């Protein structure tokens, strides 16, 4: 029997899992329609993505990307300043591309979820009510008039691969859709505020940093219960709870 390549779990939870097996990524998704949209989004995106090797039912095989992740939440990123600026420029290129046919969730849907999650955090005494309310007030400023752009939808640093100063590709396009540009910029820099100037420099133009901070609060409030219930630790240093505590 041939030797089996070492398996690395990139992301795994009850709905989706991404594994690295040798020179390939295996994406397993309980929603095959979401895989369909992911492949289509990768074809439309004007940025480097992984090569689609094959697709069989709920499993999508992608070619491995050169290099390593841009970083991890809770750990300092060792990627160069130029790499972070390049990611900012890449985000701008994506946001200026023609819109895909799918839309992200509406502001009304997100607001309703925010209400539920804030109630859970306070009712279960996971976080102090004052801290939750302070972040909620900031988070609600994202509900404004905005022009939809082509967003990645989950533009976290573990989905961006870098080799030196070069960005070799972006993974996990299952949330690619029409959405708010600031959501991508905030997801990319969540827990890495020190890298925000570099991303903004690469992105160019007039970037409202307070809106990025508002999205940090929103994403952290929305994600905390899910992380707790799926075996992740949002209270780890540099992670979601620290992001929320930084809001004064």
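Q: What amino acid sequence fits the structure above?
A:
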């Amino acid at each position: 029997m041939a030797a089996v390549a070492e398996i690395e779990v990139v992301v795994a939870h009850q709905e989706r899992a991404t594994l690295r097996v040798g020179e390939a990524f295996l994406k397993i998704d309980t929603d095959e329609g979401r895989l369909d949209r992911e492949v289509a989004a990768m074809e439309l995106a004007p940025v480097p993505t992984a090569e689609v090797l094959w697709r069989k039912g709920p499993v999508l095989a992608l070619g491995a990307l050169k290099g390593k992740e841009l970083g991890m939440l809770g750990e300092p990123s060792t990627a160069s300043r130029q790499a972070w600026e390049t990611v900012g420029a890449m985000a701008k290129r994506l946001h200026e591309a023609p819109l895909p046919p799918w839309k992200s969730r509406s502001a009304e849907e997100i607001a309703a979820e925010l209400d539920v999650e804030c109630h859970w955090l306070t009712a279960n005494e996971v976080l102090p009510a004052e801290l939750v309310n302070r972040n909620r007030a900031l988070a609600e400023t994202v509900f404004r008039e905005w022009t939809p752009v082509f967003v990645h939808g989950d533009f976290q640093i573990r989905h961006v691969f870098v080799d030196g100063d070069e960005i070799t590709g972006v993974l996990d396009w299952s949330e690619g859709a029409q959405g708010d540009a600031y959501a991508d910029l905030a997801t990319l820099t969540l827990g890495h505020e020190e890298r925000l100037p570099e991303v903004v420099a690469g992105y160019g133009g007039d970037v409202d940093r307070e809106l990025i901070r508002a999205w940090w609060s929103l994403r952290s409030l929305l994600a905390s219960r899910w992380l707790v219930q799926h075996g992740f630790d949002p209270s780890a240093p540099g992670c979601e709870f620290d992001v929320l505590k930084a809001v004064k």
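Q: And what stands out in the fold?
A: The chain has one domain: 66-245.
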